[in-house]
Amino acid sequence: MKKVLLSLGAALLMAAGAQAQTSYGIKAGVNLSKFSNTDNAENNVGFHITGFADMPIAPNFSIQPGLSLQNKGSKHSGGISGGGTTASIEGKFSTMSVEIPVNFVYYVPAGNSGSLFLGAGPYAGYNISGKYKVSGNIGENGGDIEEDIDFTGDDKDMKAFDAGVNFLAGYKLANGFLINAGYGLGLTNLSPSDKTDDKISNRVLSFGVGFQF
């Protein structure tokens, strides 16, 4: 019985120690995103805001679950010919999603100034809103066309659910200030139907700063 109580006590102390070591942070920055497998795709400039917990599970190694607001999308340019003239047009997809990333992060101490860090892990997200805008000499009045992206129903424009893998790297100063970059590799086909050959996924390059408390 004493051994059992001692073991439980040790486990509680370890759990309390791990809880005490858990830190929290927030980071924000710029997203450069585009869709894969599309012609003339260009980066759409968006943003991200992420809150996370850093939970040590081994020396210099942590798991970081988080909650993130992500502005992604893609730009596409081209031309339409007709009546002996060619009109240049640009299409822009802009989506807003809520994501849950779970990254595994390894810290490389760099003296007293701070630590380098490398990480990777899965994410799952859900698109909550989006817009599609076409700019150029189009429409009845020759102006722009802007419509909401529909993520639900049989006639949806794009799937709402997204999932993939994140890769990140950066530097954490001793005072908790963060400088980081990342890449999001979407693995979900966002096309409204799996039967089509026009499969698209998110590709996101990100840069940001933050603070870990």
Brief description of this entry?
The chain is mainly beta and 213 residues long.
In terms of topology, how is this protein built?
Elements lengths: L1 H20 L1 E13 L5 E2 L1 E15 L2 E22 L2 E25 L4 E22 L9 E4 L12 E13 L3 E10 L15 E11 L1
Antiparallel strand pairs: 1-3, 1-10, 2-4, 3-4, 4-5, 5-6, 6-7, 6-8, 8-9, 9-10
Keywords: Signal
Protein name: PorT family protein
InterPro entries: Beta-barrel_OMP_2 (IPR025665)
Structure description:
By secondary structure, the protein is mostly beta strands. The protein has one domain (22-212): Beta Barrel (Porin), CATH 2.40.160.20. The chain has 1 helix and 10 strands, in the order αββββββββββ. It has one helix spanning 2-21; strands at 23-35, 41-42, 44-58, 61-82, 85-109, 114-135, 145-148, 161-173, 177-186, 202-212. The protein has an 8-stranded antiparallel barrel. Strand 5 (85-109) and strand 6 (114-135) form a beta hairpin. The longest helix has 20 residues, at 2-21. The chain is elongated. The model is unreliable at 81-85 (pLDDT under 50). Residues 1-20 form the signal peptide. Residues 19-190 form the Outer membrane protein beta-barrel domain. Keywords: Signal. It comes from Sphingobacterium bovistauri. It holds the Pfam family OMP_b-brl_2.
State the CATH class: Mainly Beta
| CATH fold description | Porin
SSE order in H/E notation? HEEEEEEEEEE
How many helices in DSSP terms?
A: 1
Dominant shape = elongated
Write down how many β-strands occur, each being a DSSP E stretch of 2 or more residues. Answer: 10
Oligomer: single chain
What structural category characterises the helix and strand content?
mainly beta
Provide the helix percentage: under 10%
Strand content: over 45%
By CATH, the architecture is named Beta Barrel
Domain Outer membrane protein beta-barrel: 19-190
Protein name: PorT family protein
Keywords: Signal
Pfam families: OMP_b-brl_2
